[in-house]
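Hi everyone, sorry if this is the wrong subforum. Our group has a chain we'd like a structural model of before ordering constructs, and none of us has done structure prediction before. Sequence below.
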Amino acid sequence: MTALIDGIRKGNFAVFGRAGMDMFADPPGTRADEAEMFRADLGGSSANICAGLCKLGMQSALITSVSDDNVGRFCTNRLRHYGVDTQYVKVLGGEYRVSLAVYESVLEEFQLCIYRNNAVDFQVTEEDVDRVNYADFGALITAGTVFAAEPSRGSTFRAFENARKARLPVIFDIDYRPYSWPSAEVASEVLTRAGEESDLIVGNDEEFGFMAGGIEKGLDKARELAAKGKMVIYKMGHEGALTLADGAEIRTGIYPVTAIKPNGAGDSFMAGFLASIAGGRTLKDAVLRGSACASIVVSQPGCAPAMPTTSELDAFLAERSGPTDV
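Answer:
Right subforum, don't worry. Here is the predicted structure as tokens:
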């Protein structure tokens, strides 16, 4: 556990996964199928984590592929806008395409449509991950979507091996998206392997339950992983989170807000949690600050643009007496 914390405290992260374009209906409250205007910005779980980390004063580099077209260049430009290191972003020609997410800032009957045909981020190869200078970073982060197809699946497990050789801890956000996988059985097997090979695993009760074969088994799965010396953050929505580390279980609440959308919360939580650990915060305080980041993002349009800066996070917390009781 000490190696994990020490790695995070270096504040420089190699992040594996996708960058995408988000298009969200404008103004907030407009349903996507009735909209006349959309705003566009950076999207994709790993890219969002990168942007969130940079906005909180950390450093991050994204290892991915983007298409050789205007959408791929848009994503790369937005990564740079947020301060993300793009030296490991490969531009790939042909018919592979960056993912597009179309959604709205409407909580009731929220609609999210994701175009993932011929997804270019699945084309990351072992050669791509081998050219990363792992010594430059304190930790490796990945979201579960990278494991949904080859060659990205095998190359990311190769990156895990490279990270271990470089003594970098591995941080894994389960981030299960059924539409990306060939079957639930393959997803369960692969995501379980990724969890076994990671030092910190973050997911919600449904994701741990999926890995375990039933939502009622999710907490037992989290505890099983923690018993192997891993840190586990088991998120339970409005009921808060349970953090399992070094034989202890820390229960934390959330910061209620008026949400306008459900997406982006997990990415923002990850960025807020890691930035807080890097800043010397206690484990409990870091989880709470991550939860505050999640609340901020669901209360604003977009994902990457809604990620808070440190001053915005501090101001949000200063306005509240504390999280919900648990």
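For your construct planning: DSSP finds eleven helices and 13 strands in the chain. Residues 2-318 form a domain with the UDP-N-acetylmuramoyl-L-alanine:D-glutamate ligase fold (CATH 3.40.1190.20).
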